[in-house]
Design a protein that fits this description.
mainly alpha, three-stranded parallel β-sheet, 173 residues, 9 helices, Rossmann fold
């Protein structure tokens, strides 16, 4: 919790070079209640920027496949918890329509999810070292981004770093 999975995915998703590389981008927050129909519908709406009244999985997937066909897309599935292999097999069916270079980024706290969905190695984010944490705290709290000229605050900064336990989210807050 709080190591920056979503934040890192947002940085990638919003990067200028990414915008030029992909024909389509979509971001879907999945969370605990995974439903193939609802998730497919949300992805379709994100891809088309239009609401959809369909509730049939087949027609949703046909339309999604049509919208992805021949395009290079980036899809972020944020905060995924579902470990059901069959659900993921159903969900990913339309993505085969995208061209080479299409990517799906999944953020999850659950290693079982990443092993079910994985086609490439997953990247586990780790907590920050005390030194990196102190640098991040200085970046967020001080104008210069370091403790130069604020050596009296460095000791207080180290106390904050210890309380945050290397979690970037806690440090930035």
């Amino acid at each position: 919790i709080g190591v920056g999975k979503t934040t890192l995915a947002q940085l990638v998703y919003n990067d200028n070079s990414i915008r030029d590389y992909f024909d389509l981008k979509a971001w879907v927050c999945v969370s605990n209640e995974f439903d193939v129909i609802k998730t497919t519908k949300t992805i379709l709406e994100s891809v088309t920027s239009q609401s959809c009244n369909k509730n049939d999985l087949n027609s949703l997937q046909v339309e999604l496949k049509e919208n992805l066909s021949g395009k290079k897309f980036l899809l972020v599935l944020d905060d995924v918890w579902n470990e059901n292999y069959d659900d993921w097999t159903k969900l990913r069916s339309p993505f085969d329509a995208g061209i080479t270079g299409s990517k799906i980024i999944v953020t999850t706290r659950n290693s079982n999810v990443s092993s079910i969905m994985r086609t490439v190695a997953d990247h586990s984010l780790q907590i920050l070292s005390d030194n990196d944490s102190l640098c991040m705290l200085a970046h967020h709290a001080l104008e210069r981004g370091d403790f130069t000229g604020h050596l009296d605050l460095k000791e207080i900064g180290m106390e904050i770093v210890k309380k945050c336990g290397g979690l970037p989210m806690a440090l930035s807050t």
